[in-house]
Design brief:
alpha+beta, OB fold (Dihydrolipoamide Acetyltransferase, E2P), de novo design (two linked rop proteins), 2 domains, 3-stranded antiparallel beta sheet, binds zinc ion
Length: about 250
């Protein structure tokens, strides 16, 4: 049976039958992979603890006729501080779910792995404000959507092409980005957007994660910008998002 190993991060795991589990891992070498974990539901299973979401390290696979089996794991981190708090767990859950639902199996993309791993490392820090957690979540979603080619255009009015007037703005997922004042009037269902929230979203598209502590934005601005990122993500899904429901419950 051919075997291989690659670096990766666990996105999700579910029970299969009475004893096994199935894990979805985003890997460096092959992108998203689903693998069977034999006896993964047994408390004696050595691998059961390695397939908790966010677990990162080297994963060993065997390629069989019926699919892949996970045969071993050598973890570098499980992000314990991230998982010790509800807010950071919920934020990281949205980020890994975005990768789980919007990427394809066997399509390697280093940047996707980098975004998820660096966001989890940021959320695993000892001291973080609520605002910093929210900006990191927004950063990761915005980076992922942009990288996957389904980001929103925030540069001009996507309907008429004019420069944006900061007095009255909105964002439309249908139209694919920001709308000027007069187009806002004529497009149904667009969401009002403050110029401060627009600035923060634009910043998130271009900045490095380490710049987050230097950002000064009000709680209202951060909330609105994150809501836009959530809306843009939900718009891409053809199903409900359990992670967003969990995230909204811990507001
Ligand atoms: Zn317009």
């Amino acid at each position: 049976m051919p075997t291989f190993f690659t670096e990766g991060i666990v996105l999700s795991r579910t029970a299969v039958g009475d004893t096994d589990k199935s894990a979805v891992i985003y890997t460096d070498a092959h992108g998203k992979l689903t693998a069977r974990v034999r006896a993964g539901q047994r408390s004696t299973s050595k691998l059961a603890g390695s397939i908790e979401p966010f677990s990162t390290g080297l994963f060993f696979f065997a390629q069989g006729r019926g699919g892949h089996t996970l045969t071993g794991a050598d973890l570098t981190t499980t992000f314990p501080r991230l998982k010790s708090k509800l807010l950071t767990t919920a934020s990281a859950s949205v980020i890994v779910e975005c990768v789980l639902l919007l990427t394809h199996e066997w399509h390697a993309d280093k940047r996707v792995l980098d975004i998820v791993k660096s966001a989890c490392a940021f959320l695993n820090q000892r001291t973080l404000t609520r605002g910093q957690v929210m900006i990191a979540e927004m950063w990761a979603l915005w980076q992922l959507l942009g990288h996957l080619g389904i980001g929103l255009n925030l540069d001009v009015c996507v309907r008429c092409g004019k420069k944006l007037d900061s007095r009255k703005l909105s964002i439309s997922y249908d139209q694919g980005g920001t709308l000027c004042a007069s187009c806002t009037e004529s497009v149904r269902g667009s969401m009002p957007l403050s110029s401060a929230a627009l600035k923060l979203l634009r910043l998130a598209g271009g900045m490095a994660l380490r710049s987050i502590p230097r950002i000064r934005a009000s709680a209202g601005t951060i909330t609105q910008a994150l809501k836009c990122a959530h809306g843009a993500y939900q718009y891409q899904l053809d199903q409900a998002s359990p992670a967003l429901a969990f995230r909204n419950a811990v507001q």
